[in-house]
Amino acid sequence: MARYKNYDYSQGKFIPIHFDRQILPGTFEYSLHYLIDNEIDLCIFDNRYQNDETGAPAYDPAILLKIILYAYSRGITSSQKIEQCCRENVIFMALLADTQPHFTTIAEFISSSGQEIIHLFLEILMICDDITDNESAKMKTSHGVIQGYDGVAVIDGKRQVVVHAEAFGAAQEDDLLIPMIEGARKNFEAIGNKKGVFKEAKLTADSGFHTEVNMKEVMRQGIDAYIADTGFRKRDPRFSDVDKYKERFRKERVEYYGVADLYRPGRDFTISEDKSHCICPAGKRLYRNGGNVVVNGQRAIRLVILDFNRKSSDHIGNVP
Questions:
Q1: Is the dihedral of CA 31, 37, 43, 45 positive or negative?
Q2: Is-contact 150 137, C-beta < 8 A?
Q3: 44: which residues sit within 8 A by CB, 6+ positions away?
Q4: Rounded to an integer, what is the distance from CA 131 to the centroid of its chain?
Q5: Alpha-carbon span 87 to 11, nearest angstrom
Q6: For residues 93 and 95, what is the distance between their CA atoms, to the nearest angstrom?
Q7: Does the structure show a pLDDT above 80 at 98?
Q8: What does the alpha-carbon distance between residue 205 and residue 228 come to, in Å, rounded to a whole number?
Q9: pLDDT tens-place string over residues 156-182
Q10: Per DSSP, what are the bridge partners of residue 144?
């Protein structure tokens, strides 16, 4: 008979917490903490306090700004909810150094700081103009839009050796094929290949590099190139009447299943409460891979099924 370790939810545990160790480098709270403490001049808040000789000490505006901005970044806008987080969430406690302001203090600070916030916003823009790399580009990722680079590499398919690599401040790959070809050619010329590596080697690339300009250029250079074209069906006359078959299939599906769509998110997919995963009609677990998606004008989340054997993921649709 199976035996399991005992557990008891009624027991407690005292855990020592060092606030500075909870604010880890690379996180949003770390950037917020550093920015407010080191880059922003908060003296504009001093004039609103007249307690230098009499009156109780006030909460430091830096502390209040940290928890308010951090709460807003997590979608928490209620001052009462923010106060609750300050009592229960370790990151909020760390940003506050466990000072725990009352929700009325938080609400009053927010409602009365209109002019100061405008000044701070302009100051942050100036800081971002200096911290931001002007050679980088806005990149769309599964975690949203980031400021970064597109890294591209040319690899010897037979020996799996990188023969050229470069980072580009470009959000799209359209214009990067020709520079990568030239870079690889120069590298081989530097090691003694004067006849040109692409005189014999075949070039393969994914569909992100398939443009009319790139196709004309590789043909002009006489390169034996194989570049995936995701739009070939639109140009192939053999697929010109594909839409009518789609419509016929749609009608047949309505007659057989009673619905136009084979599966519906709310009906056939079981979604977890935190929307981190769901179970599809086939019983497979799908994991969240993006939550800022718009489908037909409605906000949705994207879920994928992970194939660990192939070490890749397959996109299977959007779930509102």
A1: positive
A2: yes
A3: 116, 119, 120
A4: 20
A5: 20
A6: 6
A7: yes
A8: 7
A9: 988 899 999 999 888 888 889 999 999
A10: 141
Give the model's pLDDT for residue 103. 93
d(CA 161, CA 307): 26
**pLDDT tens-digit series, residues 186-218:** 999 999 988 889 988 999 998 889 999 999 999
Q: What are phi and psi of 204, to 5 degrees?
A: -120, 145
Structure tokens belonging to residue 212: 């009319």
CB of 318 within 8 A of CB of 299?
no
DSSP string, 172-206: -STTSHHHHHHHHHHHHHHTT--S-GGGT-EEEE-
pLDDT for 221 equals 93
Look up residue 163 and give its two tokens. 């023969």
308 pLDDT band, cuts 50/70/90, is very low
Q: Which of 267, 265, 268 is nearest to 302 (CA)?
A: 265
Confidence of residue 143 (pLDDT cuts 50, 70, 90): low
Stated as kind and residue range, the H or E segment containing 312 is strand 312-319
Characterize the bridge pairing of strands 224-227 and 161-168: unpaired
Q: What three-state secondary structure class fits 288? A: strand
> Considering the entire predicted model, what is its pTM?
0.47
pLDDT greater at residue 246 or residue 307: 246
d(CA 23, CA 27): 8
Q: Rounded mean pLDDT of 114-125? A: 80
What are the φ/ψ torsions at residue 125 (nearest 5 degrees)? -60, -40
Q: Phi-psi bin for 97: left (phi > 0), alpha (psi -120 to 50), beta?
A: left
Tell whether the model's pLDDT for residue 319 goes beyond 50: no
Residue 293, Cβ density class (10 Å: 0-12 exposed, 13-18 middle, ≥19 buried): middle
CA distance 319 to 300: 6
Residues in the chain: 320
State yes or no: pLDDT of 317 exceeds 60. no
Q: Are 291 and 304 in contact (CB under 8 A)?
A: no
